[in-house]
Amino acid sequence: EIVLTQSPGTLSLSPGERATLTCRASQSVSSMYLAWYQQKPGQAPRLLIYGASSRATGTPDRFSGSGSGTDFTLTISRLEPEDFAVYYCQQYGSSPLLTFGPGTKVDIK
Amino acid sequence: EVQLVESGGGLIQPGGSLRLSCAASGFTVSSNYMSWVRQAPGKGLEWVSLISSGDNTHYADSVKGRFTISRDNSKNTLYLQMSSLRVDDTALYYCARGHVLGFFDLWGRGTLVTVSS
């Protein structure tokens, strides 16, 4: 069974700073099937990145994804005020069929 | 407008049943992978169930045997029939459109299910 772990649990940063979020899988995940979402309070999740590194429609280019195998990274190059949110990674295709990581909260320092 | 609108949530006693609906507009449910994802209060996202465009269904172990996903193509609507509900099924249930690569590119706003005596 694949388990996704995200670190850190909370990241406290200031606007303009760089954010690096990590998603680690307990077993290898195909990068085709790794996605990242952003969720703000009271809102549904929003797809940011799919296929580990492809930006979804409307995702600003300050967001980038990378990684392969068991280690994946979401980077926000310069934090904007609207980027403070919770970020989830998600894998598809391995048992269980689909799992989300526990999330990383990016809050204002 | 392309959107998903969930309904059917509410307060239900443990052991009870409830059917959630998700009405789609702007695209065809039957041509897409569709899923239910839930979020317990203050917690993270948990995938619940998926139905493929080929009618294959899949469930998380936590709901297998209790929940059934289906769709009505004539109404362009996705359903989740929930039975033998437990307190730990309490959550906001989202409907989401999936891609063959497994990501969700469209989400509804969710419907809240509260299981309590």
Please explain how this structure is put together:
The complex is a heterodimer of chains A (109) and B (117). Chain A contains no helices and ten strands. Chain A has strands spanning 4-7, 10-13, 19-29, 34-39, 46-50, 54-55, 63-76, 86-92, 98-100, 104-108. In chain A, the strands form two sheets. In chain A, strands 2, 4, 5, 6, 8, 9 and 10 form a seven-stranded mixed β-sheet that branches. A three-stranded antiparallel β-sheet of chain A has the order 1-3-7, with no helix packed on it. Chain A is globular. Chain B starts with a strand and ends with a strand. Classes of the chains: A mainly beta (109), B mainly beta (117). Chains A and B meet through strand 4, strand 5, strand 8 and strand 9 of A and strand 5 and strand 10 of B.
Short description:
Chain A is mostly beta strands and 109 residues long. Chain A has no helices and ten strands. Chain B is mainly beta.
Helix-strand blueprint:
The complex is a heterodimer of chains A (109) and B (117).
Chain A: E1 4-7, E2 10-13, E3 19-29, E4 34-39, E5 46-50, E6 54-55, E7 63-76, E8 86-92, E9 98-100, E10 104-108
Parallel strand pairs in A: 2-10
Antiparallel strand pairs in A: 1-3, 3-7, 4-5, 4-8, 5-6, 8-9, 8-10
Chain B: E1 3-7, E2 10-12, E3 18-25, E4 33-39, E5 45-51, E6 57-59, E7 67-72, E8 77-82, E9 91-98, E10 104-107, E11 111-115
Parallel strand pairs in B: 2-11
Antiparallel strand pairs in B: 1-3, 3-8, 4-5, 4-9, 5-6, 7-8, 9-10, 9-11
